[in-house]
Design a protein that fits this description.
The protein is an alpha/beta fold. Helices cover 37% and strands 20% of the residues. The protein contains 7 helices and 7 strands. The chain has a 7-stranded mixed beta sheet with strand order 3-2-1-4-5-6-7, with helices on both faces. It is globular and about 50 Å long. It starts with a strand and ends with a helix. The structure holds glycinamide ribonucleotide. Glycinamide ribonucleotide binds next to helix 1 and strand 5.
């Protein structure tokens, strides 16, 4: 089974997924990194780990369709079964999502459907919520939207700062994303299944 991670930035989730694969928690290969940002640290992480990466920059293509066709070509070359979005800061077209329906996962640092977008942690913090969290979901045609697979809450304490919340949320992400991917690779997730109870997987 071949997994492709799509990322645009730091790549801490990429590294957590790779670690889970190396430990045999996820029985699959991390065959490809798709990255759209030449300055992303995730590219260095992939190179260090000997994982093949493809830098596909949106600005190199006139139309979004051409950009995505190049990505599809890379995915087909590596016979990718599952796409894992890990901080990929581009919205995939409805055509792309349809093509890989049920085979694209995303992680988001908030309790969806609250605080969608690229600045979820800051937005939730500035709003003053007392409870935030992390969501892993199947991707559909809308941004940060689709059937929820896992959702873990984080209670915000009085002495928390934006930085401490970020740290705690990333720690949760690195734990639950590999778990969700494991479930998918084991065929335990169905697109129609909207919620997986945590007791089934984290105990
Ligand atoms: C993660 O916190 C992920 O949840 C978020 O981007 C970060 C990537 O971090 N994704 C979104 O906000 C999606 N809307 P990483 O590069 O260290 O894995």
């Amino acid at each position: 089974m071949n997994i492709a991670v799509f990322a645009s930035g730091r790549g801490s989730n990429f590294s957590a997924i790779l670690k889970a694969i190396k430990k045999g928690v996820i029985k699959a290969d991390l065959s490809l990194l798709i990255c759209d940002n030449p300055k992303a640290a995730v590219l260095t992480a992939a190179a260090r780990a000997g994982i093949k990466s493809a830098l596909v920059k949106r600005q190199d293509f006139t139309h979004k369709e051409e950009f995505e066709n190049r990505i599809i070509q890379c995915l087909e070359e590596e016979k990718i079964d599952l796409i894992v979005l890990a901080g990929f800061m581009r919205i995939l077209s409805p055509e792309f999502v349809q093509k890989y329906k049920g085979r694209i996962l995303n992680i988001h640092p908030a309790l969806l459907p609250s605080f969608k977008g690229a600045h979820a942690i800051k937005d939730a913090y500035e709003y003053g919520v007392k409870l935030t969290g992390v969501t892993v979901h199947f991707v559909d045609e809308e941004m940060d939207h689709g059937p929820i697979i896992l959702q873990v809450p984080l209670r915000i304490k009085e002495n928390d700062t934006l930085e401490s919340i970020e740290r705690k949320l990333h720690k949760i992400e690195h734990k639950i994303y590999p778990q969700a991917i494991k479930l998918w690779t084991e065929g335990k997730l169905k697109l129609s299944q909207r919620v997986v109870m945590l007791k089934d997987i984290l105990s």
